[in-house]
Amino acid sequence: MDIEQIEQLAKKMRISAIETGFKAGKNAAHFGGGLSAIEILACLYGGIMDINPQNLDKPHDIFIMSKGHGVLALYTALAHKNFFPLEKLETFDTDESDLCGHPAINPKLGIEFSSGSLGMGFSQGIGICLGWRKKNISQKVFVMVGDGELDEGSNWEAAMSAAHFKIDNLLVIVDKNKIQLDGTTDEVMNLGNVAEKFSSFAFEVREVDGHNIPEICKNISELMENHDGRPKALIAHTVKGKGISFMENKVEWHHGALNQKLYEQAMNELGTSIIRNVDFYS
Ligand SMILES: Cc1ncc(C[n+]2csc(CCOP(=O)(O)OP(=O)(O)O)c2C)c(N)n1
In this structure, which of 96, 112, 219, 230 has its CB flanked by the most CB atoms within 10 Å? Predict the structure, then answer.
């Protein structure tokens, strides 16, 4: 894996996420939970996953963005990895666009599942693995869930069944940014020690800094090499709104919208001078 290339990809994705979300105006772009997931998706699409946008009819690894509001990370990864043209990002969350505010299934664009109602993706991933088992397909499924999303009991039913069915080609990635929609996860529903919880469900668990690309790549690769029947969990410690000073760790940036001034500040912080004209967004 080319770590430098993945780091470049993450930088481009973060800039595109700001542009894309800004263009959506007051519609919910969900910057906070998109930005916390950028490095993880850059690693998946930039090196870990066995998937080729030119050959999507062939069995390939699947990524499910179960925390569907994290679309800015998903769409920017797909655009920069040539699943669709970059310009398509400009249609984000507009009428008739394929790039809805929450993912709507569209396999030709690499959007493998619809999500937005939290708590569904983990079980969907298990279903795919069980189907593949019958067809002797040994590709991998990667499911991203939010830590707030883990309040949904369906995740723990999924965890129990993944262990029961000995699904070792599935990785559940917890984007543990410690904030959910209207408060910290500790305030809303204290999850306790998530790593220990998954271990007690017989998962092989690793914890990483979810913004450290070499660490993410190394740990995912090692986990997925292990075919001992145990499902895998990666607890990624992340920062909600990562990379933009006024968004980081701020609950209001779960949903917040950028105005022109904040957009320019965000772009400056990302070290880019490509500032769009305000008319473009009116
Ligand atoms: C079933 C369901 N209940 C409630 C919501 C509303 N909702 C949207 S995002 C969110 C918080 C999610 O928090 P987390 O998973 O931590 O997301 P992140 O911080 O990574 O953005 C909630 C409760 C929903 N989308 N689906």
Answer: 112
pLDDT at 27: 73
- Is the pTM higher than 0.85? yes
- For a mutational test of ligand 1's pocket, the pick from 147, 176, 181, 251, i.e. the residue with the most ligand atoms closer than 8 A to its C-beta, is 181
CB 197 within 8 A of CB 190: no
Element at 131 (helix H, strand E): helix 121-134
Give the residue from 97, 22, 54 showing the smallest Cα distance to 281.
22
Instruction: Quote the tokens at residue 167.
Output: 């699904």
Does the structure show a pLDDT above 70 at 270? yes
Whole-angstrom Cα distance, residue 66 to residue 69?
Answer: 9
pLDDT computed for residue 282 by the predictor: 44
Best CA proximity match to 100, nearest among 71, 74, 76:
71
Cross-strand bridge partners of residue 66 = none
Strand partners, 173: 144, 234
Residue 207 forms beta bridges with which residues? 235
Q: Which residues pair with 235 in a beta bridge?
A: 174, 207
Query: Would you call 132 helix, strand, or coil by DSSP?
Result: helix
275 pLDDT band, cuts 50/70/90, is low
What residues does each domain of the chain span?
3-281
10 Cα–ligand 1 center, Å: 23
Closest atom of ligand 1 to 37 CA is 20
Q: Any idea which fold 3-281 has?
A: Rossmann fold (3.40.50)
Average pLDDT, the chain: 95
Tell the burial category of 264 from Cβ atoms under 10 Å away from its Cβ (0-12, 13-18, 19+): middle
Q: Say how far apart CA 279 and CA 33 lie, in whole Å.
A: 27
Ligand 1 pocket list (CB less than 6 A): 32-33, 36, 67, 69, 116-119, 146-149, 175, 177, 179-181, 240, 254
